[in-house]
TrEMBL record:
SUPFAM superfamilies recorded: Acyl-CoA N-acyltransferases (Nat)
PANTHER family for the chain: LYSINE ACETYLTRANSFERASE (PTHR34815), N-ACETYLTRANSFERASE DOMAIN-CONTAINING PROTEIN (PTHR34815:SF2)
Name used for this protein in its record: N-acetyltransferase domain-containing protein
Domain N-acetyltransferase: 1-146
One Gene Ontology molecular-function label: acyltransferase activity, transferring groups other than amino-acyl groups
Domain of life: Bacteria
InterPro entries: Acyl_CoA_acyltransferase (IPR016181), GNAT_dom (IPR000182), LAT (IPR053013)
Length: 160
């Protein structure tokens, strides 16, 4: 398996990974158009997990630079896996690999995400519930190796 930054030609496949969950009543064409024009999606850097043998893209996520005055941090969003490839560890491998790469190349050790699927999956990856929750539908979670950061003393980042 290989983790790499997504290319423009990967984006249709990446967007379609979330269609069954986030597409709602949109047609595939309208959903792809909405994703490709999303300012939010354009602000981040997309990463994917790809099978080395088949070339198949298995999972994807987007990484955002968070502007927090208390610390340097990244946001992880839109974690998705092809429906037929779910529950095989692909998203876990991608998230762990992306975090490891960012820790190494960007010297960043604090990550946030908003979970719409409950907390168990992310807790298995080491994420903790943020002490303050501002959204009813999503749970803010964090992972930090920075021992100088007191999450009790800061506001959660806005939903990204």
């Amino acid at each position: 398996m290989q983790i790499r930054e997504a290319k423009i030609e990967d984006m249709h496949t990446i967007y379609m990974m979330g269609y069954d969950v986030w597409g709602g009543d949109l047609s595939v064409e309208d959903y792809i158009k909405e994703c490709s024009q999303s300012i939010k999606y354009q602000k981040g850097t997309w990463f994917l997990l790809q099978d080395d043998v088949t070339g198949k893209i298995l999972s994807s996520c987007v990484i955002y630079d968070l502007e927090l005055k208390e610390m340097r941090a990244k946001g992880i969003g839109s974690i998705a896996t092809r429906a037929e490839d779910r529950r095989k560890g692909n998203a876990s491998e991608l998230v762990r690999g992306v975090i490891k790469e960012i820790e190494h190349t960007e010297n960043c050790s604090t990550f946030f995400l908003y979970s719409d699927i409950g907390t168990v999956f992310y807790e298995k990856l080491g994420f903790l519930r943020f002490p303050v929750q501002n959204y009813l539908q999503s749970t803010c979670m964090y992972l930090s190796k920075d021992r100088h950061v007191n999450m009790e003393s800061i506001e959660p980042p806005p939903y990204f």
